[in-house]
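lol so apparently i was supposed to do this last week
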Amino acid sequence: MNRISLLFVASVTILWSCTPKQEKMENRMKEFISGYEAKAIPLYRESALASWEANVNGTDEAWARSEKASVAYVSFYADSEAFAELKELKASDLVKEPLLARQLDLLYNMYLQGQIDTSLISEQIRMETEISKKYSNFRASVDGKLLSDNEVEDVLRNSKNSTELQTAWEGHKLIGPVVADDVIKLVKHRNTIAQKLGFSNYHQMSLELSGQVPEDVTKIFDELDSLTRDNFVSLKGDIDNYFSQRYGIPVSDLKPWHYQNRYFQEAPEIYTVDFDKYYENQDPVKLVTSYYAGIGLPVDAILAKSDLYEKPGKNQHAFCTDIDRSGDVRTLDNIRPDSYWMNTILHELGHGVYSYYNDPSLPFTLRDAAHTFTTEAIANYFGRLATDPGWMKSMGIIDEAEMTKIMDDSFRALRLQQLVFSRWAQVMYRFEKSMYENPDQDLNQLWWDTVEKYQMMKKPEGRDMPDWATKIHVALYPCYYHNYLLGELLASQFNNHVTTTVLTGDSGADMKAVGEYFKSSVFMPGSRYQWNEMIEKATGEKLTAKYYALQFVQ
Ligand SMILES: [Zn+2]
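anyway here it is w/ zinc ion bound
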């Protein structure tokens, strides 16, 4: 009802300003949208609901229903007649009313992805499944024992014996030669698909279809690199000194297996604050309920539909899903009273409030986040609270004295974590971009050149192995990793805006102001604006790395 009246108002105003030709095209777009919504909404809803039930119950029937529903939803966009109509409307350049034009852009990209030859898609899925099996079945052979990824991580995190560390690290890296040729074939296959749709390669296609211009993303990564480089050099010095002492070897003898995880993607625990002990006797659900209510964004309706605790057959991770973009928002978790789950439930409900507090007067296509990384940013913003001593004190988890005691180390630990992760994300972004631009280059060398440049970790002498292929995201979750880092940058940009512009110092009013700010500036606009336009309207600036640097670089 709201939507109809909104469109009516829009068409009345346009009567005065638009040509008959424009009016004709805009009417065709409106007609397209009503036909689209009638069919797409039920398919979207069934697919979201079936996937939810499969993840909660894990039965074969539930998974079969989920697969069927998601195939039905995805194949809906293969409709070539519908795509031809969108193509004509787009080419006319006469759909100018902002909401219609925005929907045209988004729907065009969705249907474009559906226009790939089904035989090429099935071939891609077949290749991905094969590779996926190889990763799943692989176990690192270490001193005659077969170790899972988690067991390798355990050795790397806990052992202080260089030989043992090296053996575990090298054992895990043997998945590289098992999958490398298959991954290169898959990369070339993805490029073929992208080129058929008019893109130069798959990396460019993935970013552009999600609404990102690759040059813009690279510019932000360059900005972040120059803002963090010096600080990282100095922190890397601290890290190396810490490891040199831990292992009793000179800094010059440190190798990639000394960094406590397979890719140096997480920070070592140099500054130890035991956050788990603060949450041992807390109820994370009670805490989030009271916190989100306090900022004027109650989450009771979301929690009522959610599945919060462990049970057999259930997905062991966490996610949040918007079933109908009309208020049915749910999160799946496996909550325990510790800091990891405190962070996770705050994070998932960040996604939750973004979806739940949307603008019901917007059309279905626009009742969505501006981009996946903008909802990740909101989730990160709230997730970070779990280890923020100021927040913990305001929630009554710790007292003033404890807050003062752990303040510095909490901040140092977070800063180290952020900087280490940001350098690692640089490696992933630069490597993937270059790999899709030229999959025939020496990828083994490219990987280590990138690692040395951004993580400042030296390649073991003489090593020439496909170490890049050991990272499962390169093969199976392509061209997405950069969004994790963009989410962190935007979380810091929001944080800066909130602290400098939204907060006034009156703590009671400030809580509500934060919720109201996010609701009106980020959640309600949904995807009516391109993500950078939304960010500029919400913070006064386009996405920038400078607030992340301001927060985490000294
Ligand atoms: Zn998330």
